[in-house]
Structure formats: structure tokens, C-alpha cells
Specification:
alpha/beta; amino-acid biosynthesis; VC0802-like; AceGlu_kinase-like_sf; aspartate kinase activity; Carbamate kinase
Length: 437
């Protein structure tokens, strides 16, 4: 069994949706995970926000506008009268439900139900389309087997327990359709997976049934060795390890959420990143193995704030760093990079909601300096201790750019450098020329 996930742009129009069969093979055992049609989730967020704010009129107008778009979608996707009627019944049901929320008390619980409608619509309409062209498939409701526990973490054993009987019940069928992103929480309420959305669903399903592989289909042919929006001549990376992929995702590679493939990594399920627009492209294969002795890619993460705490109390003092970290823990603020000297510690964050409170507490330790508008440039590859020369090539590529911090040795897979954001474009291009050309 393979898991194939398609994002919103891959099902963004009736034409795109019909062309999924260029990739989906009805004769192979596959679970197809679909996101909402592109633009739908944004509209649903807008609807929920209006209802939460008590603006029922604007919320209802947004419901009607989205409904009209789906009426056109159904006509184009399902031209045959019989199946068009089925499609209209589906959208009438879901949009009737959304319209009815204007008359009820609206809370965060209803908000999550609203956000689930996009995936429920896309999967049901695709299931009807397959039926209309004579391709057998089974629609599996994700709310029957996707669940999070009390800590909002996915419950993989629950998924295995409840999904396996559904697959066995239809063992003569090879093609299954289900929703990405949505689940139930520990109270049984409709909820969502947040981190990584539909990619996370695909990875969790792969882990739960020990799939042959997970395929994540997007509109780009795998992870590239630099940001193609900024640097010309980037190339897709053929192979990455899970750790390398996670580093790149965390530090700016938008194609993948850094935590979305963790279940596949834990259960040793290969993940392929592939391009819906170019199905024949090789894409990127992510496994536990890595090509040794190579620099793989460069990524950048914006919106970074650097904080330096300078204190003579650090000198030969144990427990100092623990107390510093506890400040960030209290305000649930993750730290990206950290460097230390005998009398100072510098670190970076990208969540600044509680920055004033954090600075106030840190000032009890010593002098605090804060620098904003920075970017982290991350170079990922084989930086194991037995390798030599790679780090010097990275620094050589940035010799003309001021560097605020360097993090090297935290893992065998990356060198991270903090620079002012105004230098980011030049840094990415210069490193590309130095490392790949």
C-alpha cells in the first residue's frame, strides 16, 4: 500500500482534479489523501472569523460566495446529469450546514468544524468523479480513524486499530480516498492536526499501516538545493536523510513542514516529494540513508530576533544557562540558535509575542541587547567531524557579508549563520556560486 497526498493546488480546479488519474493508479493499492481545493480553507477561516466576531451578515455573504464557486466547480467536474445531481446534493448539504451556523452560538468548537468542510468537500466530490468515469474507489472518513490524545499529539495506535478493519472490509478494492488535516481530539470533537496539515496525515497513515512509501505531491519537483524564488539555476535534490530534510524544512524550505514526516521517520517509511505538474520528474526521496560527503542545500528563515545576555555571573557558574532557558520555557518561546562565551550567551527566536516580558526577566541576569530583522541561513549536508573543508567553503562564500552568529556542531547536518535580512538574497546567491557551481 502506498500513501499519495495531493495539496490544494493539485485539486485547485476541476481540470486539475481530473488529471490526478495521470498519477493515481487504480490498479495499485493506494490511499489518496486530499487537501481542500485551493482557496477554500482561507475562505472558511474568513467565515469562521466573521461568525466568531458576531458579524453574521458578512459571514453569511462569504458562505454564499464560496457556495457559488462550488456550484460552478461541480458543473465542470461532473457534466453528466446523474452525477452532477449527486455533486449538488453534497455541496447543498455542506453549505446548508455552514449557513445554519449564522443562527447558532458560535465558539472555537464550531470554528474547527467549519475548517473541516474543505477536505470533506474535496474528497467527496473526487469520489463522485471517480464513480462517474467508472473507477471504483472507497471513501474513508478520516474522522473515523484520525485522533489526537490529551496532549494534542496524534494517536497512531488508534489509527492502526480503526483503519486496518476498514481496509480489510474492502480488501477487493485497491483505491481509497480520505481527508488530510482533519481529525478528532481526545474529547471526540472535530479538530485538526495543525502542524503540516495534510502532509502530516499522509505520514501518520504511512506509519499506522506500515506503508511501502508516502508520496507528497505538490507543485514543485522536490526539495531544491536553494530557494528557486531567489536563486537562478537551482536543482532538485535526489536524496535526503530525514534529519537533513527536517533541517531544511525548519530553516525555510516551504515544501515541507519540519515535523510532518516525523511519523514516517520513526516507522522507517520512505517519503517522496513529487511534482503534480511534472509527474515524470524524479523529485526527492527521503529515507534514513544519506549521500555522504556532499553539501545538499541552502535555506533561509526570516523574521529572526537575536538576543545577547552579557553577565559576569556566567563565569564558571553552573545553572546559569538553565535559568536563562527557563525564561523562554515560561513564555513557550522556542530558541533557534545559541552560542556562548565565558561571559555572554547569544540566541535567536522567531516568536516575539512575549519579547518584552522575556527581556524584563533576562535583565535580572545582566545586560541584554536585542537585534531584529535578521535571517538564519542554513547550509545542509554531511558535516560530520571526520569531514574537513566544508565549513571553510561556507565561510568563504560569505566573506563579504557581516555575520552576527555561527552555529556549527549542533548536528552533523548543518552550519547555520545569522545575518541581517537585507543581506539574505546576496548570501543565498553567493553561497550557491561557491558551493554548487
Amino acid at each position: 500500500m502506498k500513501i499519495l497526498k495531493f495539496g490544494g493546488t493539485s485539486v485547485g480546479s476541476p481540470e486539475r482534479m481530473t488529471k490526478l488519474l495521470d498519477i493515481v493508479n487504480p490498479n495499485e493499492e493506494q490511499i489518496v489523501v486530499l487537501s481542500a481545493v485551493s482557496g477554500t480553507t482561507n475562505s472558511l477561516v474568513e467565515i469562521a472569523n466573521y461568525f466568531l466576531a458576531g458579524d453574521k451578515k458578512k459571514g453569511s455573504e462569504c458562505v454564499e460566495n464560496l457556495y457559488q464557486k462550488y456550484k460552478t466547480f461541480v458543473v465542470e467536474l461532473l457534466p453528466a446529469t446523474e452525477f452532477q445531481e449527486q455533486g449538488n446534493e453534497v455541496i447543498d448539504y455542506h453549505f446548508g450546514f455552514l449557513a445554519g451556523l449564522a443562527n447558532d452560538i458560535f465558539t472555537s468548537i464550531e470554528e474547527k468544524v467549519v475548517l473541516a468542510q474543505g477536505e470533506l468537500l474535496s474528497t467527496t466530490l473526487y469520489h463522485i468523479y471517480l464513480k462517474s468515469i467508472g473507477v471504483p474507489s472507497i471513501l474513508l472518513p478520516a474522522l473515523d480513524f484520525m485522533k489526537t490524545d490529551e496532549d494534542n499529539e496524534p494517536d497512531i495506535p488508534f489509527t492502526t486499530k480503526h483503519l486496518t478493519p476498514l481496509l480489510e472490509k474492502h480488501k477487493d478494492n485497491k483505491l481509497f480516498i480520505t481527508q488530510g488535516y482533519i481529525c478528532r481530539n481526545s474529547f471526540g470533537e472535530v479538530d485538526n492536526l495543525r502542524r503540516g496539515g495534510s502532509d502530516y496525515t499522509a505520514s501518520l497513515l504511512g506509519a499506522a499501516i506500515l506503508a511501502e512509501e508516502v508520496q507528497i505531491w505538490t507543485d514543485i519537483d522536490g526539495m531544491h538545493n536553494n530557494d528557486p524564488r531567489i536563486v537562478k539555476g537551482t536543482k532538485p535534490i535526489a536524496r535526503l536523510s530525514f534529519d537533513e530534510a527536517a533541517e531544511l524544512a525548519y530553516f525555510g524550505a516551504k515544501i515541507l513542514h519540519p515535523q510532518s514526516v516525523f511519523p514516517a521517520q520513526k516507522y522507517k517509511i520512505p517519503v517522496r516529494l513529487l511534482n503534480t505538474m511534472e509527474p515524470s520528474a524524479a523529485g526527492t526521496l527521503i529515507t534514513h540513508d544519506s549521500e555522504k560527503g556532499k553539501i545538499k542545500s541552502i535555506a533561509a528563515k526570516d523574521g529572526i530576533t537575536a538576543i545577547r545576555i552579557q553577565s559576569s555571573r556566567m563565569l564558571l557558574a553552573y545553572g546559569f544557562l538553565r535559568r536563562v532557558f527557563e525564561v523562554f520555557e515560561r513564555y513557550k518561546t522556542p530558541i533557534d540558535m545559541i552560542t556562548t562565551s565565558e561571559v555572554a550567551v547569544s540566541l535567536t527566536i522567531d516568536e516575539t509575542a512575549h519579547l518584552p516580558q522575556i527581556i524584563e526577566e533576562l535583565e535580572s541576569f545582566g545586560t541584554v541587547e536585542v537585534d531584529t530583522d535578521h535571517s538564519i541561513v542554513c547550509v545542509v549536508g554531511d558535516f560530520g567531524s571526520e569531514k574537513h573543508g566544508f565549513a571553510s567553503r561556507v565561510l568563504e562564500g560569505l566573506k563579504h557579508i557581516p555575520i552576527r552568529m555561527i552555529s556549527y556542531g549542533g548536528s552533523n547536518y548543518n552550519v547555520s549563520l545569522l545575518i541581517l535580512s537585507e543581506y539574505k538574497t546576496e548570501a543565498l546567491r553567493s553561497l550557491h556560486n561557491r558551493l554548487f557551481e
